[in-house]
Amino acid sequence: MTHRTQRLLTVGALARVEGEGALHVSVRGGEVEDVRLRIYEPPRYFEALLRGRRYTEPPDLTSRICGICPVAYQMSACHAVEDACGVVVDGQLAQLRRLLYCGEWIESHTLHIYLLHAPDFLRLPDALALARSDAAILQRGLRLKKAGNEIVEVLGGRVIHPVNVRLGGFHRLPTRAELDHLAMVLRQARTDAEDTLGWVAGFEFPDLAISHELLALTEPDGYAIDSGVPTGALAGPFPVRDFEQHVREHQVPHSTALHATLDGRPHLAGPLARWNLGSERLPAEIRALAAQVGLGPRCDNPFRSIVVRAAEVLWAVTEAQRIIERYQPPPTPAVPVPPRAATGFGVTEAPRGLLYHRYDLDEAGIVRKAVIVPPTAQNQNAIEVDLRAFIQPRLHLDDAELTRRCEQAIRNYDPCISCAAHFLTLTMDRR
Amino acid sequence: MGNERIVVIGVGNEYRHDDGAAVSVLAQLAAEDLAVDRLTLCDGEPTRLMELWEDAGLAIVVDAVHGHPGEPGRIHSVTVDADHLLADPLVDEESPAGTHGLGLGHGVALAAALGRLPRELLIVAVEGADFSIGEGLSPAVTDAVPRAVSEVRRAVEAHRAEASGP
């Protein structure tokens, strides 16, 4: 309470996030002294277990890092290994990969919007309460998510940890009948995505503005998802091979996930970064629909990230439709990727932000070193900075309400803790 | 009624010791060639459960559970009553509701609220002793696997007998 000079808020296990983490906030004499997002999932050791594996294995092995965004891991891994081997996968195979990635964006974002984040804005405890208060809304969300699942299943062979991705392309190409089915599913998904955008844009958003660095892929001809150049809002664009010189990871005692900075500054990856750095390259139709609901070319309020996610879902649906419409079967499901001794770099836009992989291969194609920088690890610093700014003007709230708001704020970033742990219980210390 | 689909879904993680009970149960059912429309493992995520049991006349979900107080190896067969569930959800309101933390109870309650339960839903729950990281079932759960297999088989046969009428 406000008459206390010292206050401690603790959330021991954050709810409605991907994984296990906790939040610790301490307040001294009316000033927020410390904010720590504590990730306590066990370390994963993926970078170590990849050493000594064949160069063909990282796509399948790293997909196991996350059940929500396995395609992101597969794509960044494929790009990195193919880069090392001097192979570029383009044409219709690249388009099919993009289609698979659109499926993951649709299902991952929709899961977050409907099941994890929207209940906060509706002052409901969870998706179950949303189902009881408005079953039709949640049915729409589940239908939209299923559209994403179906894309992943057709292209990837199954919904979780797809098995059809390989270096150079795919094990099996989709049939025309399968794509026609997806086209039919996507027609309804298009309507559902537009309705979702209108729905979330009508929520009430607390005031908060980010002021830190942003990092996302950009490309000249469109909205970046599976290719592009890493670009900082302040740092500017830089080659992917220089990624580790710009994005530095460091350990902090309170987290099993590494923290990261971009040129020494906390930075944010994900929907807000992508939107602010790339929304002007979205199709005019998407920009117009976003503008209609009040989402302009810049969005600095993390609470409005749910609107950006909905816009990204709409874009992913239309992009998937475009790819299917123009699809011509490539001559083979995959192109050859012979090994060579080299270092390769791969970076794509996972739903939660930029995902970087690097592999050092020897002449036999054995992985000698692997580096993986997931988006949630990059975002931890920015989340703590934003939370500090969010909590300070709200210290008059009682512990229960402040805790609830902090959890909502953390969910703005859709942290994927399993990816980052190399989720939330809140402790607030007011003394 | 006679053409109704029967699905058997196993939920669990074989790398968390007894949480892998359903994996063993389904492996045994597959080895015995249980004649059902779908025999599949699932991570228990509610939307996937709903998709798996969509339009099913009977869905059987096999899962491992904590007992308080527990009796490792004890099997609970619970037929879900949607009307009762809507009136009195078997969900701990304080339990975590992250996508990794949603239990089967949340999934079933969510499906009931959305009108997306199968016509008949049977939960076969095996009480576990050890849910720490690692492979292999505890002796009590190992002993329970054949009994859980028999329970699933019994439920499938009873449903078929009822569906084919007198």
Automatic annotation (TrEMBL), chain A:
PROSITE patterns associated with the record: NI_HGENASE_L_2
Gene3D superfamilies reported for this sequence: Cytochrome-c3 Hydrogenase, chain B
Family assignment from sequence similarity: Belongs to the [NiFe]/[NiFeSe] hydrogenase large subunit family.
Protein known as: Nickel-dependent hydrogenase large subunit
Claim: S-adenosyl-L-methionine is one of the keywords in the record: no
PANTHER family: COENZYME F420 HYDROGENASE, SUBUNIT ALPHA (PTHR43600), F420-NON-REDUCING HYDROGENASE VHU SUBUNIT A (PTHR43600:SF2)
SUPFAM superfamilies xrefs: HydB/Nqo4-like (SSF56762)
Needed cofactors: Ni(2+)
Key words of the record: Metal-binding, Nickel, Oxidoreductase
From TrEMBL, chain B:
Gene Ontology process terms (BP): proteolysis
Database matches in Pfam families: HycI
Keywords: Aspartyl protease, Hydrolase, Protease
Cross-referenced InterPro entries: Pept_HybD-like_dom_sf, Peptidase_A31
Single GO molecular function: peptidase activity
Keyword ATP-binding: no
Bilayer-crossing regions: none
Keyword Transmembrane helix attached: no
NCBIfam families linked: hydrog_prot
UniProt similarity note: Belongs to the peptidase A31 family.
Name listed for the protein in its UniProt record: Hydrogenase maturation protease
